[in-house]
Amino acid sequence: MGVPSLNCNQMEKYINITDLTGSFTLHNGVQMPYLGLGTYQSDNDQEVVNAVKSALEIGYRHIDTAAIYKNEEGVGKGIRESGIDRKEIFLVSKVWNEDQGYDETLKAFDASLKRLGVDYLDLYLIHWPVSGKYKETWRALEYLYAQKKIKAIGVSNFLKHHLEDILQDCKVVPMVNQMEFHPHLVQQDLIDFCAAKGIQYESWSPFMQGKVFELDICADLAKKYNKSVAQIILRYNLQKGIIAIPKSVHAKRIVANAEIFDFELSSEDISFLDGLETGERIGPDPDNFNF
C-alpha cells in the first residue's frame, strides 16, 4: 500500500511498525520504542506507581516523565516494583526552565537521577526553548552525553528557528524533538525539517486534552476501522513516523492504547487527518510562553 503523504524516512519507519516491542532508530543508532507511557499530571503517589507497573506488565518499555511533573520518585518506584530489568526500559526525563543554563542543568540532571533512583537516562530533553539559556543547556546535555550518562539527547517544543539556532554550533545534533501534535496542529513543515536533519519527531497531547474525541471525522474513522478514536489517533502518529506517549493512569486504557497493531490507516485517511490542520494549540506557544 502506498503512502504518498510520507517522505522516504517516514515511510521506512512506517514499514517497521510491528508490535508494542517495536522501535524507531535514532540517528545515533539508539532504539527508541515508538509507543510509550506519558505521565504528565499523574500524581507522585500510588497513582503513577501503578500506571508505570501496569504499562511495563503489558509490554510497554518506554516511560516519559519530567522534573516539572513532580512524579519522578513515583516513576522510579514503579520501575523497580515492576521487576523489569532497567536495561530493558527506555526512560525519559526533561530539564525544567528554571534549571536551564550549563551548571544548573548538570545539577538538575543529577537531581532527576536521584529522584528516579537510576544511574543513567535513555533520553534527556530540554523542556522548553528558554531564550538566552537553551544553547548553554544544550552544551550541558552534550557533556552528559559524552560522559555516557545519557544514551540520547533532545529537545521539546522547539520550532524550526530554535532548531536552526542550536544546529549552528552544536557538537551533537538533537536526536528527538517532542512537540504538541494532533490533527489540528500537524506542522508538516516542521516534521519534514526534523526528518531532513535526522531528528526524530515525538508527540505530546495527541488527544488534544480530550478534544479529539469531539471531532466527527475521528468518530467516523473509528467506526470505519472498528477501533476507538484514541486507537485511530495513535496509529496515525506511528504511520507518520511519530513517536507517541499517551498518558493514562487506568490499566484498561493503557492496554487499549497498545491495541493498534492489527490494522492500518489508508494513505487517504492519513492525508485527510493531516488536512484537519487549523494551527490550534492546546498548550503554550513555543514562541510566547512566560514560565
TrEMBL record:
Residues 35-276 form the NADP-dependent oxidoreductase domain. Keywords: NADP, Oxidoreductase. SUPFAM superfamilies: NAD(P)-linked oxidoreductase. It comes from the Bacteria. Pfam families: Aldo_ket_red (PF00248). The keyword Cell cycle does not apply. This is Aldo/keto reductase.
